[in-house]
Design a protein that fits this description.
Bound molecules: NADP nicotinamide-adenine-dinucleotide phosphate
Strand order of the largest sheet: 4-3-2-5-7-8-9
Number of strands: 9
Number of helices: 7
Radius of gyration: 17 Å
Helix content: 40-55%
Distance between the termini: 51 Å
Length: about 240
């Protein structure tokens, strides 16, 4: 049976990142119950304090942290079951990512596979697990993943990064063809360079022209709230270069 999902619960991966924390804030601002996932106690505390300050301003306190060192299937099953327990998740956002340069003459297979593991696999596994958990109870759930403009064109000396984001794009397009029957809809947001910890690693681009993390968060929130029978499958969010 397919049910409308009127819950206001969101699960956010990559919450310790500059885009991730803005995503947490925008859902809090809109009265959501926010479940944030981070890797260790330090980032748990940091995020908790930032969100506490923020939600106190809004006179709200509805967030819960989950610590998970690993990104594998077993860890993700635990997280999803916990977060989906009392109230079904309406939205899941994955803002996990790793960036680095690798030129062709220094290509390293292990690095390539590591990028696939971090940048591509989690969203695939999240879909797999949610399909299993929701086998009987099919609530509408939107899964939004932060990809990258590199998914479309790639750029110099970023073989592993660009390939992992391109793989994410084709994976999501294939996954949607199976999951839409169970009302699980995936959207990939592919931004250009963003002002963040990761953005500061990008060479030969004008940092001041980068997109603000809060703007990416606004786009994520807006898309996740659209009640339309169609799917916004991927969005190319370009920065304006003057
Ligand atoms: N910044 C840009 O220019 C840009 C442009 C296009 C797309 N994006 C994409 O946007 C997303 C968010 O990036 P950001 O700009 O917010 O960068 P960021 O501030 O560096 O955040 C990256 C996030 O990924 C998490 N992460 C990295 N490796 C992980 C691992 N092995 N296991 C679990 N979590 C891991 C980090 O956790 P810790 O804090 O614990 O390390 C952090 O929460 C990424 O997918 C990125 O590719 C970024």
């Amino acid at each position: 049976m397919i049910k409308n999902n009127n819950s206001n619960k969101v699960l956010i991966f990559g919450s310790s990142g500059d885009i991730g924390i803005e995503i947490c804030k925008i859902y809090l601002k809109n009265n959501f119950n926010v479940c944030y996932v981070c890797r260790d106690k330090n980032s748990y505390k940091k995020i908790y304090n930032k969100l506490f300050l923020f939600s106190k301003k809004l006179q709200r306190n509805s967030f819960e942290g989950i610590i998970s060192k690993k990104l594998n299937e077993t860890a993700l099953i635990k997280i999803l079951k916990k977060a989906d327990k009392n109230q079904p998740l309406r939205v899941i956002v994955n803002s996990i990512g790793v960036f680095g340069y690798d030129e062709i003459v220094k290509f390293n297979t292990n690095k390539f596979l590591e990028f696939i593991k971090i940048n591509t696999m989690p969203t695939i596994l999240l879909n797999k697990i949610l399909m299993k958990i929701r086998y009987k109870k099919r609530y509408v759930t939107n899964i939004l993943t932060i990809g990258s403009s590199s998914a479309y064109e790639g750029f110099e000396k970023t073989i592993s990064y660009s390939a992992s984001k391109h793989a994410l794009l084709s994976s999501i397009k294939s996954i949607n063809k199976e999951t839409y029957k169970n009302k699980i809809f995936n959207t990939l947001i592919n931004p250009g360079s963003v002002k963040s910890r990761m953005g500061r690693k990008i060479k030969n681009q004008l940092y001041s022209s980068f997109i603000n993390p809060a703007d990416v968060a606004e786009l994520v929130y807006g898309i996740s709230m659209i009640k339309s029978p169609g799917i916004i499958e991927d969005v190319f969010y370009k920065r304006i270069i003057k």
